[in-house]
Design goal:
It contains no helices and 11 strands. The chain has about 120 residues and is mainly β. The strands form 2 sheets. Strands 2, 4, 5, 6, 9, 10 and 11 form a 7-stranded mixed β-sheet that branches. A 4-stranded antiparallel β-sheet has the order 1-3-8-7, with no helix packed on it. The N and C termini lie far apart (about 40 Å).
Length: about 120
Amino acid sequence: QVQLVESGGGLVQAGDSLRLSCAASARTWSDYVMGWFRQAPGKEREFVAQIIWSGGSTYYADSVKGRFTASRDNAKNTVYLQMNSLKPEDTAVYYCAARVRTASTYNYWGQGTQVTVSS
């Protein structure tokens, strides 16, 4: 059973930073891709970033490129999303997700953590 637990959300002002964490439980993560998604009120869930557990390659949505950084700590089985220069439009519930590298969709999802950026 794969479990993902996010933490680190909160209320910040525009320009501030936050770091989200996603603690992952699984036998082995070497074959997984970890993703970050977000959903703002009244909007569809959108992709934010991904990191390939083995090797650490990352990919970002254009809207966050240069401001957000995904990383992982193998020893802690945890992935992070460092969010800098936050904007009010970054306000959303952020979700951590996981899929095997050969899958096209994310199979496992965390419960989400709220990020609110005030102007």
